[in-house]
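Predict the structure of Helix-turn-helix transcriptional regulator.
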Amino acid sequence: MHTLWQLEIAALKGIITTLYMETRMSNDLNKNDVQKLILSLLKPDPRKAKSAAELVKLIDVSRLHKFSKKDQKQEDDVLEKQAQRRVLRILDDMIDKLIYGVEELPTKPRTFYLKNQTDYSSLLQILYGLNSNIVMHLPAEERSEIELLDSRQMPNSVALWQQKIYVGRSGFCHRAEADPEIIRVIYKAVESEQFVEFDYQTSTGKRSTLEAFPWGILLKGDSCYLVANPHDSGKPWPVTYALHRVKNPKFTNRLTENAPGRPQDKNHFQQFCKERQLDLFANEDDAEIQLQLRFINGKGRSLHETVLAADQQIVPINSKEFRLKATVKNCFELHRFILGYGADVEVESPLRLRELIAEKLKAAATIY
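Done. Here is the predicted structure for Helix-turn-helix transcriptional regulator.
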């Protein structure tokens, strides 16, 4: 169905003229014609909603007075009121049927606007654009339709959904705040594919100034990271930089064409993040291992749904224990995950990981 509300005012007038030409032989407008006129004149923005009286003026009362059962020589104001009642009845009927998406604006009695039918789909489109994994949270019909959405159909209703969706913290800590101006420069550098120079302080306090080519943005929970390749790294892969630790970013004049350290093609960044498991902060030296854990005290039940790997296997031992096997990266994130379970998990294999976790737990016990 063509979305008439997207047309410009001039085009709307053209529609009215066309409808008039189509109906002038009968010198009358039927209900379907009036519905089309109303839909074309309604706006998707509630702030620009129109009342029945406004619609009557836009449609032209002289074309609606044919609905009057009384003498057509009545005063114009009487005919206008009758036309308004006719429009209200049509709007009420459209609302009852819920087929055109016309809604009554609650803050202004008897004022109507055209509800955009793709509000929810457009929000999903935005989320899908950020992360294709959002598909797993969609109903079957949306899964097949979301890739067909046209960005030109995106409504100005994101603010509405911002009032309906709450994004909580991914952990106990509040997220680190990045300066809006820093965000603007970094995002512009990513978008325009320009080298950017900035000051950076690592989590251990080491400070440096570097120039890098930005590959993209990594979102991990509440945190945001710049993925960029330092100009003088001599390596083909990038590094992650927490955006809240970036200071004084600025563009440089270094040419980007054929510059070393750039992604191989437009899909390389996504492929790199997925294959390297960059969201786990894994590096090139982190090997895949055959992990075997024993969970006790009834812990770890959520791992039935939030799996560690595609080949994960869970074998019950008794009512409060189970054994988990999975092929995973032996990386920082895995160590932190295991340590987070404390005394409720035992690393059974590989042996080197078991020894590493034992050393960390012994060191922690020594402190206490």
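The chain has four domains: 4-114, 119-162, 180-280, 288-367.
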